UniProtKB/TrEMBL annotation, chain A:
Residues 32-69 are annotated as: Disordered. One of its GO terms (molecular function) is glutaminyl-tRNA synthase (glutamine-hydrolyzing) activity. GO terms for cellular component: chloroplast; glutamyl-tRNA(Gln) amidotransferase complex; mitochondrion. It is found in: Mitochondrion; Plastid, Chloroplast. It comes from Eutrema salsugineum. One of its GO terms (biological process) is regulation of translational fidelity. Signal peptide: none annotated. Residues 44-53 have a biased composition (Basic residues). Subunit of the heterotrimeric GatCAB amidotransferase (AdT) complex, composed of A, B and C subunits. The lineage of its organism: Eukaryota, Viridiplantae, Streptophyta, Embryophyta, Tracheophyta. Residues 54-65 have a biased composition (Polar residues). This is Glutamyl-tRNA(Gln) amidotransferase subunit C, chloroplastic/mitochondrial.
TrEMBL record, chain B:
Its EC number is 6.3.5.7. This protein may be expected to contain an N-terminal transit peptide but none has been predicted. It comes from Eutrema salsugineum (Saltwater cress). Belongs to the amidase family. GatA subfamily. InterPro entries: Amidase (IPR000120), Amidase_CS (IPR020556), Amidase_dom (IPR023631), AS_sf (IPR036928), GatA (IPR004412). Residues 136-587 form the Amidase domain. It is found in: Mitochondrion; Plastid, Chloroplast stroma. One of its GO terms (cellular component) is mitochondrion. Allows the formation of correctly charged Gln-tRNA(Gln) through the transamidation of misacylated Glu-tRNA(Gln) in chloroplasts and mitochondria. The reaction takes place in the presence of glutamine and ATP through an activated gamma-phospho-Glu-tRNA(Gln). This is Glutamyl-tRNA(Gln) amidotransferase subunit A, chloroplastic/mitochondrial. The active site is at K190, S265, S289. Pfam families: Amidase (PF01425). It catalyses: L-glutamyl-tRNA(Gln) + L-glutamine + ATP + H2O = L-glutaminyl-tRNA(Gln) + L-glutamate + ADP + phosphate + H(+).
Length: 159, 641
């Protein structure tokens, strides 16, 4: 599936296009207030009652925070879910995302993001096409094809 | 007791011990596994006395017996010459792959039991000396797999070519050709690592029956050096899990206790090495998936520096964290396997051009150690890993391990990593975000299972909906949420900033210390099903390991003790973390640690040198042998019906 396609869906979804820093702060508050039980579970294993997971419950405004809407996320991720699955996943995903909320209180001012561990640059090979010899084997894995083409059902672009 | 030494009086009559059927039941743990006892097959039980790999409590509980199975009929046993045709296959204590003792017991009742030996080196020796052939070893491993797989379920696929590959090695030996360093070494490969023409499914329905058209670079290198791929090992689907319960196909049992998980996600690879279904194996480690199962199964698990090993052919989960890692029953084996697969690969731009040093010089024999072989090595014990919430048995095993390092000459101090607890949420944000992007390739169009639909989007949705398991779907959805426009800065970017903080903390700690140590997991192996429905409880178990992936550092886990649980205790692993690309130091320290861990023999219920043969009817054909390398430190007595 094309990543580009689902990114397109995301950016056209109006309710999560813009979040101001202020809103994020409010989200954070909501996170910490609504996640006390999960925070506890986590604390069992990680001791340090972190500066982050305390004292942010005063100005909770849950109307600002959009909790994950499983159905629309599933649509974005192109995964069909049964109603029973939605019911099962929703509380679990919400619990984990609440727990993610503790990151909001970390002071990351002027900290550069690291896209991965230390990297030496310049290991890219020349961008030139190469022939892969074992083509028949690739073809053997394709569920449906016709000569040089992959066969798929009709493409209806709802977006 | 009705036993005698076969060596002393091989012609005496055999007597069936009254306790034997009971014993078999104990060792196999599950009542349904008790074999029907009838001739002419025989089950062999060896004395645990004199062995160090079982806790004193279990020795008392089981009268000091380990279970051994032999597929040879009794006449072989009557002949002294054939007595080595034995395979230890007992489930529970007897499956442990190497002597394990609590470092805690080292001061009391210490005795010298030979330290664990490299299987790669001893295989090479016995092949070159003609003591055995690769085909013989292959048959022995295959029969062992046949015997143990019904209970353990480590493998999703067994290669049809094992014997053929072994014969090829034998032919090379016969022709006097040079042998690769991994010649005749039987290797299990985690199912998310591509093997040409052999199923590679990442334990997911969406890739059921998929056979890749190419070998992963690591697999290609192993084959070039003579290694034989035994099969594909079970795992949590796409590596997402810590128990191997999230496999779409089967649940792997921990060889130490069949009711417990082997850890994960590389649970199949770890359990297979622990049960000696293969000599070494490949796993992958995104947040601890090699190290935590190594701890749970009592084997050595090595996670190299990010970039040390090519990821080409490793099915991507979280690309910025994924590494291929190695399992072995000794540090030397894990290190030699790592050496074989390391190095720059033009098919992976994140693989490093750093030189790969010859690790083998670090694996000196214990006889050549000085009195303080690690004199002056600075070791930092990570304070945050020993705070409450960590099982007290794990804590004390770690502290004892630190004392052992001190006894070897190390300078052990506590270090603090202030950002330690931030690693877990940062890790799960990064891993689920990257997985939601990486797993978008599984769309049912080019490979894998396709669910036909009337239009393309429906085809994607249904193929993915039916092909992915629950945990995978949830992580993709969480990742989709975290990467959503507007949320990206709040989650993914922030998690990457936290990664920078964690890297800095590790760097500071490693500037002051040569290595860092911590437990490998907050507890020993837990019960199957225990944490299945509580994602946060499961995620919390990764607290010891995820930071190392975020910092990209190399780390090794090796057995350091036992805690109570299961029929014979449960292993606990020590994690040793090194500076980037300094696997050499990591291997040196851990090899010396492993080889010098003192053992306490304890007293078994029977005299040392006891072996019992029980009739058994459920064994496959072929003769069990470990190529003459059967090295339990006991002699045997035969007792039979």
């Amino acid at each position: 599936m094309a990543t580009r396609a689902f990114l397109a869906v995301i950016s056209s979804s109006p309710n999560r296009c813009f979040i101001t820093p202020r809103m994020i702060k409010n989200q954070a508050s909501a996170f910490s207030s609504s996640s006390s039980s999960s925070a506890l579970q986590f604390q069992r294993h990680s001791r340090k009652p972190h500066r982050i997971s305390r004292s942010f419950s005063s100005e909770t405004n849950s109307s600002v925070l959009q909790p994950p809407d499983i159905s629309s996320l599933a649509k974005t991720a192109r995964i069909s879910l049964t109603p029973a699955e939605i019911e099962e996943y929703e509380p679990k995903i919400r619990q984990v995302i609440d727990w993610f909320g503790q990151l909001q209180q970390v002071d990351v001012n002027s900290v550069e993001p690291a896209i991965r561990a230390d990297m030496e640059g310049g290991n890219l090979r020349e961008d030139a096409p190469e022939t892969f010899e074992n083509r028949d084997s690739i073809r053997a894995s394709i569920p449906s094809f016709d000569e040089a083409y992959l066969k798929v059902p009709k493409v209806l672009n709802k977006e | 007791m009705c036993s005698f030494s076969i060596r002393k009086s091989p012609n005496s009559s055999f007597i069936f011990p009254k306790f034997a059927p009971l014993l078999v039941r104990h060792c196999l743990t599950l009542p349904s596994l008790v074999p029907i006892l009838k001739p002419p097959r025989f089950r062999v039980v060896a004395s645990l006395s004199g062995t160090s790999w079982v806790s004193q409590a279990s020795k008392e509980k089981y009268g000091g017996w380990a279970l051994i199975e032999d597929e040879a009929p009794l006449p072989h046993w009557k002949s002294k010459k054939k007595w080595r045709n034995v395979v230890i296959t007992g489930v529970g204590s007897s499956l442990s792959s190497r002597p394990i003792v609590s470092a805690a017991s080292s001061t009391i009742d210490a005795a010298t039991v030979s330290p664990p030996q490299s299987q790669i080196l001893s295989t090479r020796r016995s092949l070159l000396s003609g003591e055995t052939t690769a085909s013989e070893i292959a048959k022995s491993y295959l029969s062992r797999i046949r015997l143990t797989e019904p209970q353990l379920k480590c493998f999703l696929h067994i290669s049809e070519n094992v014997l053929k590959d072994a014969q090829e090695i034998d032919a090379r030996i016969a022709r006097g050709e040079e042998l690769g360093p991994l010649a005749g070494v039987f290797i299990g490969v985690k199912d998310n690592i591509c093997t040409e023409g052999m199923p590679s499914t990442a334990a997911s329905r969406i890739l059921e029956h998929y056979r890749p058209p190419f070998d992963a670079t690591a697999v290609k290198k192993i084959k070039e050096l003579g290694g034989i791929v035994v099969g594909k090992t079970n795992m949590d689907e796409f590596g997402m899990g810590s128990t191997t319960e999230a496999s779409a196909f089967q649940v792997t049992a921990n060889p130490w206790d069949l009711t417990r998980v082997p850890g994960g996600s590389s649970g199949g690879s770890a359990a297979a090495v622990a049960a000696r279904q293969c000599m070494v194996s490949l796993g992958s480690d995104t947040g601890g998936s090699v190290r935590q199962p190594a701890s749970f199964c009592g084997v050595v698990g090595l996670k190299p520096t990010y970039g040390r090993v090519s990821r080409f052919g490793l099915m991507a989960y979280a690309s910025s964290l994924d590494v291929i890692g190695c399992f072995g029953s000794t540090v030397a084996d894990a290190g030699m396997l790592l050496h074989a697969i390391s190095g720059y690969d033009r098919f992976d731009s994140t693989s490093s051009k750093q030189d790969v040093p010859e690790f083998q010089s670090q694996f000196l024999s214990v006889d050549s150690f000085e009195s303080k072989p690690l004199k002056g090595v600075k070791v930092g014990l990570i304070r945050e890993t020993l705070e409450e919430g960590v099982d007290c048995g794990v804590r004390s095993a770690t502290q004892e391990a630190a004392s052992h390092l001190e006894a070897l000459g190390c300078l052990v101090t506590e270090v603090s990593l202030p950002s330690f607890s931030l690693g877990l949420p940062a890790y799960y944000v990064i891993a689920s975000s990257e997985s939601s992007s990486n797993l978008s390739r599984y769309d049912g169009v080019r490979y894998g299972n396709q669910v036909m639909a009337e239009e393309l989007n429906k085809l994607y949705e249904c193929s993915r909906g039916e092909g992915f398991g629950g945990e995978v779907k949830m992580r993709i959805l969480m990742g989709t949420y975290a990467l959503s426009a507007g949320y990206y800065d709040a989650y993914y970017k922030r998690a990457q900033q936290v990664r920078t903080i964690i890297r800095k903390d590790f760097k500071a700690a490693l500037d002051q210390n040569d290595i860092l140590i911590s437990p490998a997991a907050p507890s020993a192996a837990y019960k199957i099903g225990e944490k299945k429905d509580d994602p946060l409880a499961m995620y919390a178990g990764d607290i010891m390991t995820v930071n190392v992936n975020l910092a990209g550092l190399p780390a090794i886990v090796l057995p350091c003790g036992l805690v109570e649980g299961g029929p014979s205790g449960l292993p606990v692993g020590l994690q040793i973390i090194g500076a980037a690309f300094d696997e050499e130091k990591l291997l040196k320290v851990s090899h010396i640690f492993e080889q010098t861990l003192k053992v306490s023999p304890g007293k078994g219920g029977l005299e040392e040198g006891t072996l019992v043969v029980l009739p058994l009817d459920d064994l496959g054909g072929g003769r069990g042998t470990l190529g003459g390398r059967f090295s339990m430190s006991t002699s045997f007595v035969l007792v039979t019906a």
